[in-house]
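lol forgot to send this yesterday, sorry. struct tokens for the thing we talked abt
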């Protein structure tokens, strides 16, 4: 059963080496992510599943120790998804690479882990079914859920300004902060795609996993630097 979850955004700028001179601008976000991951460790899970958006097909599962890098952003920083170096493990998608960096930063050693890339187009019912299967697999499950809100919050946002973005993000942030699984499950997948909200599918996987868990939530961060909605929440 699900005993804890942390929700974090996955911009590569979260990594100071990638952000370079702008690194300090996201210090508060990094601190909130560290606090959320700390809630996972405190829950004493038997396993951790890290999920995040991975294009249109989804990929994984990724074994513990799978590698990721930020070479595409001009830095030599490399990470692994937990300790170990499995043979011939595929490279992590960006969302799980950022998650691996977060786990390294917090020195994760609380439980074995694996990664799962979720297709951004996965329909809500399929997301919920995936979450239920994860929760039913046995033991005390913790989840680190990566994903951004709308990328259409301002004129300079990657997706330009869409007047619907603020309302969508406000409801997503409220639901994440309240651990409101029904509201997360009800997020409109078509609207999320139009607003370039890559976190929709991972959040709905979390909603499926948490349906009967009775968890409480706390919203630790809610802002839109660079015109993209970033939320951090902790469920326990």
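and heres what i got for the seq, position by position
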């Amino acid at each position: 059963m699900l005993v804890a979850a942390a929700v974090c955004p996955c911009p590569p700028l979260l990594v100071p080496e990638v952000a370079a001179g702008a690194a300090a601008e996201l210090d508060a976000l990094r601190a909130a992510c560290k606090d959320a991951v700390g809630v996972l460790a405190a829950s004493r899970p038997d396993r951790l599943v890290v999920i995040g958006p991975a294009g249109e097909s989804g990929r994984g599962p990724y074994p513990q120790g799978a590698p990721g890098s930020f070479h595409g952003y001009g830095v030599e920083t490399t990470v692994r998804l937990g300790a170990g170096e499995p043979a011939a493990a595929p490279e992590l998608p960006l969302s799980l690479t950022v998650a691996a960096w977060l786990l390294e930063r917090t020195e994760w050693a609380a439980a074995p882990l694996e990664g799962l890339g979720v297709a951004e187009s996965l329909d809500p019912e399929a997301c919920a079914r995936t979450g239920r299967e994860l929760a039913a697999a046995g033991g005390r499950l913790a989840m680190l859920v990566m994903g951004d809100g709308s990328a259409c919050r301002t004129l300079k946002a990657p997706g330009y300004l869409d007047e619907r973005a603020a309302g969508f993000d406000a409801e997503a942030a409220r639901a994440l902060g309240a651990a409101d699984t029904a509201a997360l499950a009800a997020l409109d997948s078509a609207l999320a795609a139009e607003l370039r909200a890559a976190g929709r599918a991972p959040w709905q996987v979390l909603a499926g996993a948490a349906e009967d868990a009775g968890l409480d939530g706390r919203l630790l961060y809610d802002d839109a630097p660079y015109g993209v909605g970033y939320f951090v929440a902790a469920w326990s």
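The chain has one domain: 2-235. anyway ping me if u want another try
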